[in-house]
């Protein structure tokens, strides 16, 4: 606090008071000095009101709470470095100094830095934004594109200065050097978000085969920093640009523990820029090893395949046996067979020769056969003649003997005998015949008598009668007769016709009585 | 290496695909079940694939370009000078 009374150069202007008189400017200057000395570095929390960007680039605003208002200004150079974009109603904590503006009797806060009031508020805002973008589907898993195994060109969106791009290039060089296209952007402060978004869109707009090669992988990277420092990567335009990128995109913002909204929209999230480079490319040396190993295996497998087949062929060849020995054996068999053939041929010939000789010996000359046949023929002719002569002589003798015996004497004698016997026969025949006849007559008479004795005729003679029907058949039962039936009654001396039935007026009672007695008589038979 | 005789279908393969096919051929041959003629064909193709893979691996280059934007908005690139 200045002591006005001790201020030099001030003189009393009125009697009775020793207060020196001073100019407005002096006073204003004095106030300014006092304020700046007393409030050279302050942190003040308040709500932003009426932020206004002047064409000069400076930002004017008010900080207020429920009871007071302080004018504030943020010079152009500082605005660019602010981690947040001041907006109406934003609760912020500003750091800076108090000064006065003598021209308008104002005091104001000159802001050096500005941050959101409390992490909670910022995080709450981010959480709401995240939910909103997620609801649009920007973070959906099916939007994620696979990274190329070995990108031809890698596009990197980051600050051209600083450690991030160097870390990425170093790691790429270690693993697999690739052509890199750097799209330089501011990674914090005003305009950073817009630049990052434009860079992502710009890479996507590059035509394949154009003068600038289109990357097939993007890395959006930034080094570590406070939550406010990373705010550009939470901005909606950046998140949307990342989500809409057709080129696969790796986000690598801040350190491992930092998560920004671009990480949800990117295809892969790397915890650090270095890790992004590791995701981007495989290790060349490993691949080279793998290729060389494959080559060795290729050779080995092929060699083994050939060896196996060679061994197999050799084994089979052994299985086939030595053709020479095979031939030798066969040749020997052939020799043996040949020899046996010769021997057997010779033996056969000899055997046949013997047989021929034998047969030849048995074979007589046709002349001999003829001579023999002639001899036999002569013999036979002689025997024939002799036999014929003998037979003739024999027959001649027999003829004479039979002729001698042939005379009619015997015939005559037989004739005389026959004649005598013929004369003798008739008387004998008569006698015999007569005797037989008498005997037969006697026998006949005898039989006649016998017959008479057994005939019914005899019964008839004793007074019985025989009734016969129209056919002459005897009637033996009264039941066989019907009234009016005609019958014949045989008596001893002859037959009489009769009619069966009750006596008619014309009939005589005696007759009917006699007829009625017949059936009982019949029972006697 | 005679790249001009590299079969065009192999030359068109990406490194990844070429390596995958090479591995497949190696496994097949190692199984040793293929007919000899097929095995020889596979072997030849495997050799080409290996050459192709090697060539792809040799393409490694550390060129770093920096995007420039002309006043009319056209995008160009120039060698980046970092550090």
UniProtKB/TrEMBL annotation, chain A:
Catalytic activity: Exonucleolytic cleavage in either 5'- to 3'- or 3'- to 5'-direction to yield nucleoside 5'-phosphates
Domain OB-fold nucleic acid binding: 23-115
Alphabetically ordered keywords of this record: Cytoplasm, Exonuclease, Hydrolase, Nuclease
Enzyme Commission no: 3.1.11.6
GO annotation (BP), single: DNA catabolic process
Domain spans labelled Exonuclease VII large subunit C-terminal: 138-359
Residue spans of biased composition, Polar residues class: 15-25
Region (Disordered): 1-25, 498-525
Enzyme class of the recorded protein, top EC level: hydrolase
Localisation: Cytoplasm
UniProt cross-references to Pfam families, sorted A to Z: Exonuc_VII_L, tRNA_anti_2
GO molecular function ontology, one term from the record: nucleic acid binding
Entries under InterPro entries matching the protein: Exonuc_VII_L, Exonuc_VII_lsu_C, OB-fold_nuc-bd_dom
Domain of life (superkingdom): Bacteria
GO cellular component: cytoplasm; exodeoxyribonuclease VII complex
Similarity comment: Belongs to the XseA family.
SUBUNIT field: Heterooligomer composed of large and small subunits.
Listed HAMAP family: Exonuc_7_L
Function: Bidirectionally degrades single-stranded DNA into large acid-insoluble oligonucleotides, which are then degraded further into small acid-soluble oligonucleotides.
Name of the protein described by the UniProt record: Exodeoxyribonuclease 7 large subunit
Protein source organism: Niveispirillum lacus
Primary gene name: xseA
UniProtKB/TrEMBL annotation, chain B:
Principal subcellular localisation of the protein: cytoplasm
Protein name stated in the entry: Exodeoxyribonuclease 7 small subunit
Pfam families (alphabetical): Exonuc_VII_S
Recorded coiled-coil stretches: 12-46
Subcellular location: Cytoplasm
Quaternary organization: Heterooligomer composed of large and small subunits.
Enzyme class at the top of the EC tree: hydrolase
HAMAP family found in the cross-reference section: Exonuc_7_S
PANTHER family: EXODEOXYRIBONUCLEASE 7 SMALL SUBUNIT
GO biological process: DNA catabolic process
InterPro entries membership: Exonuc_VII_S, Exonuc_VII_ssu_sf
Keyword set, alphabetical order: Coiled coil, Cytoplasm, Exonuclease, Hydrolase, Nuclease
EC number: 3.1.11.6
Gene3D superfamilies: Exonuclease VII, small subunit (1.10.287.1040)
Function: Bidirectionally degrades single-stranded DNA into large acid-insoluble oligonucleotides, which are then degraded further into small acid-soluble oligonucleotides.
């Amino acid at each position: 606090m200045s002591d006005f009374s001790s201020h030099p150069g001030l003189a009393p202007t009125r009697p009775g008071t020793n207060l020196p008189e001073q100019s407005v400017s002096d006073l204003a200057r004095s106030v300014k000095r006092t304020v700046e000395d007393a409030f050279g570095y302050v942190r003040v929390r308040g709500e932003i009101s009426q932020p206004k960007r002047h064409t000069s680039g400076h930002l004017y605003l008010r900080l207020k709470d429920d009871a007071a208002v302080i004018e504030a200004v943020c010079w152009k150079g500082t605005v660019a470095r602010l981690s947040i974009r001041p907006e109406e109603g934003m609760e912020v904590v500003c750091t800076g100094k108090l000064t006065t503006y003598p021209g308008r009797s104002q005091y104001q806060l000159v802001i050096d830095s500005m941050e959101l009031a409390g992490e909670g508020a910022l995080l709450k805002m981010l959480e709401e934004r995240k939910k909103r973008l997620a609801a649009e589907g920007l973070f959906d898993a099916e939007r994620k594109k696979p990274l190329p195994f070995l990108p031809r060109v890698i596009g990197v969106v980051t600050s051209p200065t600083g450690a991030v791009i160097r870390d990425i290039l170093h790691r790429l060089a270690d693993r697999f050097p690739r052509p890199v296209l750097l799209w330089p952007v501011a990674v914090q402060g005003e305009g950073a978000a817009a630049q990052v978004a434009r860079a992502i869109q710009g890479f996507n707009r590059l035509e394949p085969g154009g003068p600038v090669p289109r990357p097939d992988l993007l890395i959006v990277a930034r080094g570590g920093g406070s939550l406010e420092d990373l705010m550009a990567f939470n901005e909606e335009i950046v998140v949307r640009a990342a989500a809409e990128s057709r080129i696969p995109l790796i986000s690598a913002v801040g350190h491992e523990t930092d998560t920004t909204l671009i990480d949800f929209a990117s295809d892969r999230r790397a915890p650090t820029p270095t890790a992004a480079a590791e995701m981007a490319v495989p290790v060349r040396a490993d691949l080279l090893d793998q290729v060389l190993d494959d080559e060795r295996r290729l050779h080995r497998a092929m060699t083994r395949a050939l060896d196996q087949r060679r061994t197999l062929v050799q084994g089979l060849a052994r299985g086939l046996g030595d053709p020479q020995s095979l031939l030798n054996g066969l040749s020997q068999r052939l020799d043996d067979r040949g020899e046996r053939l010769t021997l057997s041929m010779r033996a056969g010939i000899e055997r046949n020769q013997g047989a021929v000789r034998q047969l030849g010996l048995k074979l007589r000359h046709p002349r001999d056969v003829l001579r023999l046949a002639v001899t036999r023929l002569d013999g036979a002719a002689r025997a024939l003649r002799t036999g014929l002569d003998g037979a003739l002589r024999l027959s001649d003798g027999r003829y004479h003997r039979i002729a001698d015996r042939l005379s009619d004497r015997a015939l005559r004698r037989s004739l005389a005998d026959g004649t005598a016997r013929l004369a003798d026969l008739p008387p004998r025949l008569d006698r015999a015949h007569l005797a037989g006849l008498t005997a037969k007559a006697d026998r006949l008479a005898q039989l006649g008598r016998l017959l008479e004795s057994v005939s019914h005729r005899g019964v008839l003679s004793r007074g019985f009668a025989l009734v016969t029907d129209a056919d002459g058949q005897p009637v033996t039962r009264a039941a066989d007769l019907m009234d009016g039936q005609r019958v014949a009654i045989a008596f001893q001396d002859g037959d009489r016709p009769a009619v069966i039935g009750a006596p008619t007026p014309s009939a005589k009672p005696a007759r009917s009585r006699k007829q009625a007695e017949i059936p009982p008589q019949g029972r006697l038979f | 290496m005679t790249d001009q005789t590299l079969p065009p279908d192999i030359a068109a393969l990406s490194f990844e695909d070429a390596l995958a096919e090479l591995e497949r051929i190696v496994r097949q041959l190692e199984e040793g079940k293929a007919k000899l003629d097929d095995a020889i064909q596979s072997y030849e193709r495997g050799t080409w694939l290996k050459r192709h893979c090697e060539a792809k691996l040799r393409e490694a280059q550390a060129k770093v370009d920096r995007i420039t934007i002309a006043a009319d908005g056209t995008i160009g690139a120039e060698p980046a000078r970092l550090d």
